[in-house]
Amino acid sequence: MTKIKACLFDLDGVIVDTAKYHYLAWRRLAKELGFDFTEEHNERLKGISRMDSLEILLEVGGLTLDENVKVKLAEKKNNWYCEYIAKMTPDEILPGTKEFLELLRGNKIKIALGSASKNSMSILTNVGLVNHFDAIVDGNNITHAKPDPQVFLLGAKELGVAPEECVVFEDARAGIEAAINAGMYSVGIGDPKILNKANIVVSSLKEMTLEKLNSQIYCKGA
User: CB 180: neighbour CB atoms within 10 A?
Assistant: First the structure.
């Protein structure tokens, strides 16, 4: 048997719902630039970096801008986003998340964050979850966005655990693909039709138990 020794979690849409704040900031930027940015458009931004997200937004608006302007726009969006997340409280932790993290810790399973966000420390501090993680790898540590596996491979390295002994919890297709590319198991949080490449799909961490993790994730080794 290959035993799971570590769990790696995406942040947005898995631990907390900061996706709504990203959307509000991106939509605000789009309106300033003269076009509408819908929730459907926003789906394309899940799990990818800030600059890649900006490129998609500009594509939606049919705009081509030089790099200096794009950097300033990304900073403006992030400043608005930071204003929103500065008001976050522990009440915004998604259902079942804290309980599941504590269950893992109680069973000596290591825990890491693997997020494209550059604001993960601020968010985790505001909601009171920093101490629940053994390692935090985010947009400040990585150079390649999901579906590149870099963020999860770095997380496993920080934890001192082999990739095949890790499970990734993700709400985005790009994140599930990153887990697969890293040689890890994956649990999708959300729509089974979108996350159909995951080993398991649940609606939230409230559904997760060690029994479910063991029975559906463990596999026979060579």
Answer: 18
CA 57, CA 62: separation in Å to the nearest integer?
A: 9
Binding site for Mg(2+): residue ranges? 10, 12, 170-171
Question: Architecture of 6-16+92-217 per CATH?
Answer: 3-Layer(aba) Sandwich (3.40)
Annotated binding site: 10-12, 26, 45-50, 53, 77, 115-119, 146, 170-171
Strands of the 166-170 sheet, one edge to the other: 135-137, 110-114, 6-9, 166-170, 185-189, 200-202
Beta strands in the chain (DSSP E): 6-9, 110-114, 135-137, 166-170, 185-189, 200-202
Name the pairing type of β-strands 135-137 and 166-170.
unpaired
Residue positions in the annotated binding site for substrate? 10-12, 26, 45-50, 53, 77, 115-119, 146
Residues 189 and 208: beta-carbon distance below 8 Å = no
Active site residue 10: yes
User: Considering only 17-26, 182-191, 195-204, 211-220, which range has the smallest mean pLDDT?
Assistant: 211-220
* Domain layout of the chain by residue ranges: 6-16+92-217, 19-85
Kindly report, residue by residue over 64-77, the tens digit of the pLDDT. Answer: 999 999 999 999 99
Was domain 19-85 assigned CATH 1.10.150.240? yes
Given a cut of 80, whether residue 137 has pLDDT beyond it is: yes
Catalytic residue check, 12? yes
pTM metric for this prediction: 0.83
Between 67-85 and 120-127, two packed helices, what is the crossing angle to 10 degrees? 10
